[in-house]
Amino acid sequence: MNRLPSWCLGLTTLLVLTVACLWNYYPPIAGPQHFGIVFPTPLPVGTSEPVVVTGKPTAGDFLYVRYVDAQTVVFTYDSWGHGGPSSQPIAIKPGTRHTLELIMPSLAAVPGSVEPFSENVRVTLAGIAVLEGVVHSFQRHAEHAYFGRNPLGGTSCGAQFQGQLTQGDGRPVATNVPAAFTLRARIRGWLWHGRWQVGAIALVSLAVAWAARHRRLTATASAQRLVPRVQAVLTSHRAFALTAVLCCTAFAAMITHGTFRLISVESFTDFYDFQASSLLQGRLDVPEAAVMEEAFIHEGKTYGYFGLTPALLRLPFVIFGMPFGELSRAAMLVYFAVTLVGAYRLLLDATQLLRPNCPRPAAWQTMLLTAHVGLGSTVFFLGSRAYIYHEAILCGIMFAVLSCWCALRHLANPTGRWWLGALALGVLSVHARPPTGLFALTVLGCVAATHLFRLSLSQSPSPSPVPCPPSPVLRPPSSLRPLAIGALAIAGVASFNALSYAKFGTIEGCPLRLNVQYDAKRLANIDSRQFHLANLPYGLATYVLRSTVEFEANFPWIYLGPKIPRADFPRARLDLPDRTLAVPFGMTGLFVLATAVGAWACWTLPAARAPLLVLSVAVVPVALAMFAAIATAERYTGDFCPYLISAAAFALAAPVWHRTGVALLVGATLWSCALTFAVTLHYQGQTVWGLAPEVRENYQQLRDRVDRFLLSSAPTSR
Known about the structure:
Blueprint: H1 4-23, E1 33-38, E2 48-56, E3 59-69, E4 72-79, E5 90-91, E6 97-103, H2 105-108, E7 120-125, E8 128-134, E9 145-147, E10 164-166, H3 177-180, H4 183-193, H5 195-214, H6 219-236, H7 238-255, H8 271-280, H9 288-291, E11 296-298, E12 301-303, H10 309-319, H11 328-354, H12 363-375, H13 378-381, H14 388-412, H15 418-430, H16 434-458, H17 480-504, H18 520-525, H19 536-545, E13 549-551, E14 558-560, E15 576-577, H20 583-586, H21 588-604, H22 606-628, E16 631-632, H23 641-652, H24 659-687, H25 693-713
Helix pairs in contact: 1-5, 4-5, 7-11, 7-12, 8-10, 11-12, 11-14, 11-23, 12-24, 14-15, 14-16, 14-23, 15-16, 15-17, 16-17, 16-22, 19-22, 21-22, 21-23, 21-24, 22-23, 24-25
């Protein structure tokens, strides 16, 4: 086959992507910036004028000069909503040129930059440092830097510098970034500061050339075959597709507060973007603004205890300068949709295993499982708020469900390579949310132990009446594979502790003594530890035994009740116990399927015994860790979702379902959906922090409208 067309296609891809990247690319303004500054004559005493302004309204940084009297000025740095330092009064000569050198963090803080930027501001006038200190700063879009003018507004300074800012050669300084960089400077800056983009474009172009070289079909023929394939898939899986679309629409409406704006800024959603930027710079620490009160300080650097997986998924977006800190909603919707796909794949495999003569689940089974996972579980509750806590859990759930699917496929086919997928996805899960990853990798370890046990049974010698001389026992080569898989699963769990050591100098995943919120008194209350055996009764009561559901006459009628009193468990060492729905009462259908129906399936269906026992054993360490923790919260019940989803899929695929059982299961699912929706809506509208005031106002208005409508519709007695 002629290679020329494939190489031409690769070069065309390289050219198109290069032009697309350079079209609106401006390099970060790194290092000290040198200017000449001439103050106006006479000085407009009592006013403030901008020198350098970066960012956008509500997220901008200002370096400005304030005129004290006819010959005295003060330089001040201000980060929107955070303030900043000011210099001592400085004597100057109006109308005379002074040399000005400055370092401002936000000038270099462009998403995707490979160079770390300082958190110090430094201003030197005529060779004398007049202002210096560690300051808060905002990431800025590459174009959002302005010299001698202030287009952001605010109250820090006026709109224009009335003096002159010049370059070293005396030419006037461009007032904005596009005017400051020539095309040659942009290309040169891109080749250095944008080298991650350069590398990514090169890889994509090579991949396109390779694919064109090895592709035997033309694009037209591929498209002609693709359309009927998609139609066939949608037809054969229409029950899942319709239910999943309904669930995703409801989740998108909830997480966007009904606006369906998936690309949007919310508070505490940019940590993973900052973490991705740090990874591109070869660092694990992040700016203090990325973690706020969740900051962990070690050796003078700021870290977050959150895992790296969502940050790794952000890398392409950060590299190519896509919306910084605005992707949490969209990312969580993707995690939600993929979780539904993983649950459906588990149901398909369970059905093929338990009902070989009917390899596809019934439509009601598909719709019921998908609706319960998508609308009646903590997976939906996490859509109440798009911020880092919920994103981490939902990401962990998604990868854990997919890992369990691969691990159970390996259980059915030990000679295959599904264990590789289970291991990789489990590691990604543990670095998103440790409890979900612990469950996924424990499932893989239990699968390996099951294969090892089966091998030992199949290779055990049969009794012989003739005595044989003793001989050394050699382990069969085939037993090395499950041993290696089990060891890799343990290493996958330990990788989280290794990362913690790299960040904190300890294998503790969350060393509270390094957290800025914990003082000596608070640490003493919990013995500086996250887990206590004395908490097991409290955790068991919170997550399993006690119902905290309350009913009221006002919409949405079903509420999350008060948290369990600490006085009932005087020995418990608790720090942040919050109101929580016990799993049997909050995810009733999944819980009944995973426990009671699962136990029945184990007893009556030998084919279901191994996968259900593996899942049941694997959930034990996760449950113990959750019960022993010093904190409880409704969102933490999401850590049980991978087990509930996986076990429920196998229990639901049981060969025989009577009408009574189906009716009870449908009722439990409807109850879970109604409860989850009500609790999620109320939590979003009245409890969770960080949302815009209009969200709470809209929720209250909705409650009032519904209550008035029902009151006006109620029959009156005569």
